[in-house]
Every structure is written in C-alpha cells, then in structure tokens.
Design a protein that fits this description.
The chain is α+β, with helices and mostly antiparallel strands. The chain has five helices and 14 strands. Strands 7-6-5-8-14 form a five-stranded antiparallel β-sheet. Helix 2 links the parallel strand 1 and strand 2.
C-alpha cells in the first residue's frame, strides 16, 4: 500500500485487502485504511464480501450481483431501506416473510399486508412503492422485540412462537423463534440481562414497529 500511495494516484483500487487477517486485526486495519483515505483525500474503490467491513469503511456502497449493480447509496440507506430481497439479505441478517399487499389502507401512510402467520401486518409506506399483490416483507432481527410493548400499537405486527435456539453473544442475545411449522424468525436483544434470557422451549410473542418493516422486490 505505501508504494501505491507514494505516486499520489487519483484513484486507488483495493481488492479484498484484509481477507487473510484474523478478525481483530481486520477491525484495526480497516480503521487505519479509513483514516488514511480521509487524510489523503484519495478516491478509493474498495471491493469486499464482508458486509460489516463495507458498512464500516464506506461513504457509498454499491451492491452487485451477476454483474449488475442492484443498489447504490450511503451505508445507512442500503441497510435501512434496501430495494430488493438480495440487497436486504446480503447486508446483514433479514427475516423475510411472504405476503400479499392489500389495496386498502388501514390508515394514512400505512399499508396492510396479509401473511400466513395470522393477523395482518401493518407497514408504514414511507415512500415504499408497491402494487397490490404478492410481496416480500423484510424485518431486521434487531427490529423484532421479544414481547410486545404496552399500548394500542402492540396489537399489530405481532406473532406468537416458541424459542428453538438461544445464542448469548455478550452485547447481543440472538433468538430463533418458530412462528409456524417450518417458519422461524430471528430476533436480537441488545445489552441483554443474562439472568432474564428466554430459554429453549419458552413461548414468546414477537412484535415489530410498522416503520421498521420493509416491502422488498423479489431477487433478480
């Protein structure tokens, strides 16, 4: 890298530069690379299959599949508002449910989507363009709450299930919850209390705010 920088290039291409490093060193080195890029002001094209690395190091991300650019934008936009199922599943974990978009609106700015999980789901449209018919719903694991909050909004977007797997990762507790035969959702609880963790076999209810549910286009 120093030899590439000494000639002061206008464009720097980095193709999987950290792929052979261990996890801790990768984190340290991506911080160094980001600091150098900002200090020198060199436009850098950085190729990686590591989703976390892409989110952490980029000003703009382009997600490609089969030679096509599917979506470009700042990291937060691609993560929070993916246009299709491929982008949603490639950048971080995503629960995907099959549904049918209703033409009727339950309330201003909210669309009703029927699924096989029972009660219909409310989705805040928020500029999400979709025509009535079959759709995919995408929900990030961290957007699913284990047990609905108090209040009238909790009657929507909730589903009962049984905990089948629990992974305690320190900062995060990750649950696999079977909500229908052969259908499981992943929920993540941040900064969990270890003593209050649910156990395998526990009955729980998952809930998600309508603003956190995305309508996804099919994979290309």
């Amino acid at each position: 890298m120093p030899r590439a920088l000494v000639i002061e290039p206008r464009l720097l291409l980095m193709d999987e530069p950290l792929s052979n490093l261990d996890a801790r060193l990768r984190v340290e080195m991506r911080t160094v690379i980001r600091r150098l890029q900002r200090t020198l002001g060199i436009t850098t094209l950085y190729v990686t299959h590591d989703q976390e690395e892409a989110l952490a190091i980029s000003d703009t991300i382009a997600v490609m599949a089969r030679g096509q650019v599917l979506q470009t934008g700042p990291p937060w936009e691609l993560y929070r508002a993916p246009r299709d199922r491929f982008v949603a599943e490639f950048l971080g974990g995503m629960n995907v449910l099959a549904g049918r978009l209703s033409a009727a609106r339950a309330a201003e700015g909210v669309t009703v989507v029927e699924t096989d999980l029972g009660a219909p789901w409310w989705v805040a449209t928020d500029g999400q363009g979709a025509t009535p018919g079959a759709v995919w719903l995408g929900i990030r694991p961290e957007s699913l709450r284990v047990e609905p909050p108090p209040g009238p909004a909790a009657r929507w977007n909730q589903v009962a299930g049984t905990v089948t797997e629990v992974s305690y990762l320190g900062a995060v507790a990750r649950y696999q919850v079977e909500v229908a035969p052969g259908v499981s959702l992943t929920a993540e609880v941040h900064d969990p209390d270890f003593l209050a963790l649910h156990r395998v076999g526990d009955a729980v209810r998952l809930w998600c705010d309508s603003a956190k549910v995305r309508i996804l286009a099919p994979q290309p």
